[in-house]
Amino acid sequence: MKMIYSIIILVCCTMTSTAQFVQNNSRSLYSDVKAYRVGDAVTILIVEETIADNSATTTQSTKTDLSGGVSASTGSTSFDGSVSLGTGNTFNGRGQTSRNEKFRTKLSAKVTSVEANGNMKIEGKRTFQLNGENQSITLSGFIRPADVQSDNSIYSYSIMDLTVVYEGDGTITTAQEPGMITKFLRWLF
């Protein structure tokens, strides 16, 4: 009888211990630890560089000449008159803009939902204080599991519908804003 109880206990313990490995959300012992379900964290490597150059040159020239003449004679008197009118206008315009921006940082984001095709919606926010300025970076977008690297990171250029908001609040930001009178005059005109 003790033997039967021992076998039943052994079978129950074996079934309980294997059940934890059979669960749907378990990971393989041989695969990399990558984000693939809601709540998982992924490291975003934000590497954005924008270079824009634009230039335009316009030359416009107009010239108008108008001339006419009248001549008449009656007997001993003759009249000879001519009129000439000329106008000219020249316009040269040139404009050029150049902009070069780089933004590099790391940010952790959380998987908030997984679509039927396996793509994951991610959202992340990091807030820090630098030289008396409160800075915050907010990120959202969609990632493909195939783009997540073995170290559980992904580059920002691989994120679909990427939205990155970089905001600051403090002394420097306040100094860069126009004053109340300037704001009022802009509103007026």
Give a description of the structure.
This protein is of the alpha+beta class and 189 residues long. The protein has a domain at 31-50 and 102-177. Helix content is 19%, strand content 57%. The protein is built from 3 helices and 6 strands. It has a 6-stranded mixed beta sheet with strand order 5-1-2-3-4-6. A hairpin with a 2-residue loop joins strand 3 and strand 4 (133-143). The protein is elongated. The N and C termini lie far apart (98 Å). The model is unreliable at 17-23 (pLDDT under 50).
Largest sheet: 6 strands, mixed
What's the tally of helices? 3
| Mean pLDDT level | 79
List how many beta strands DSSP finds: 6
Helical residues, percent: 10-25%
Shape category? elongated
Give the radius of gyration: 38 Å
Q: What structural class should be given to the helix and strand makeup?
A: alpha+beta
Series of secondary-structure elements, N-terminal to C-terminal: HEEEEEEHH
Distance between the amino and carboxyl termini = 98 Å
Strand content: over 45%
- Unreliably modeled segments: 17-23
Q: What strand order characterises the main sheet?
A: 5-1-2-3-4-6
